[in-house]
Amino acid sequence: VMMMMMMMMGFVKNVPTVPVKNLNGSSPVHPALAGITGILMSAAALPVCLTRPPKLVLHPPPVSKSDIKPVPGFSHCCRKTTKKQVRKGKTPEEVVKKYLQKVKSPPEEDCTICMEPLGGPSGYKGPGVGPVSRAESVGRLAQCGHQYHFQCLVAMYNNGNKDGSLQCPTCKTIYGVKTGNQPAGKMEYHVIPHSLPGHPDCKTIRIIYNIPPGIQGPEHPNPGKPFTARGFPRHCYLPDSEKGRKVLRLLLVAWDRRLIFSVGTSSTTGESDTVIWNEVHHKTEFGSNLTGHGFPDPGHLDNVLEELRAQGITEDDVLVEK
């Protein structure tokens, strides 16, 4: 590059000057940089424009308490969760049977849980599952039709939250009401008088999640062991539009069902036994989108609605739990 610059210097005495500008206008372009760039670019008959890298904007401008307003259509502005999860009184076998239809002649294919033929015994050899008769050895999930060994489904249920719901491991259809293992915490939500990039015609819904560190319960990976909670309170943003408020209503259902966060291993830091996001994406970057967690993002609201649907949460749930 230096050789090329030196060669060009010998031929640029009569090259016309090309204006060089700093788009941000916050500080002048260094003369040496402007001169070299002008020489190189003018020789190629190209315009010159030096810019600063875009700036990360995580938070909105300061907001006074008097400017914070309730979200239209919402009677409250805070939701808390308790430590203990509501447990169903039925045994695992009873829960699984509730969602199954009997199969007289199993097809010649493998159970996708244990990978053993459905026509033979379950490949599960662990504790907690008793023997079953041949007539009950295989069952078909009533809604989606996928078939499994009964003992495999019971073992899968025992390894989950044991909340009375069952999720098909093949197609993810949810039977019953799915709940998670989100620790106790608080969810606040209100409107602030600023607009998000891509949503200039409305104000912004700010959600504040706060979960303190604690001790893992029986539904967590390591019961009795402490868990950490990094980065709280976490601020998240939605446009205060009709669809944004719809997403907020569904997020409240997800919060009540303990599905927004989980306890596990962080994919970013590798830390185990810590509070992590649980497959429902949030925007934590207010005024930019440099990390992919901000705006503008035209498909974000629809993506969140789809992620909530995958957790078994739809508009029908809002009507029941609003």
Which characteristics define this entry?
3 domains; E3 ubiquitin-protein ligase; four-stranded antiparallel sheet; Herpes Virus-1; zinc ion binding; Enolase-like, domain 1; zinc; zinc-finger; 322 residues; three-stranded antiparallel sheet; elongated; notch signaling pathway
Count up the helices.
7
Question: What's the average pLDDT?
Answer: 85
Say what oligomer this is: single chain
Would you state the CATH class of the largest domain? Alpha Beta
Which strand order do you get reading across the main beta sheet?
A: 1-7-8-11
- How many β-strand runs? 13
How is this structure best described in words?
Helices cover 22% and strands 16% of the residues. The chain is α+β, with helices and mostly antiparallel strands and 322 residues long. It folds into three domains: 17-22 and 29-51, no CATH class; 65-83 and 184-320, Enolase-like, domain 1, CATH 3.30.390.130; 92-175, 2-Layer Sandwich (Herpes Virus-1). Strands 1-7-8-11 form a four-stranded antiparallel β-sheet, covered by helices on one side. A hairpin with a 5-residue loop joins strand 3 (138-141) and strand 4 (147-149). The termini are far apart. 25% of the residues are buried. Residues 1-29 have low confidence and may be disordered.
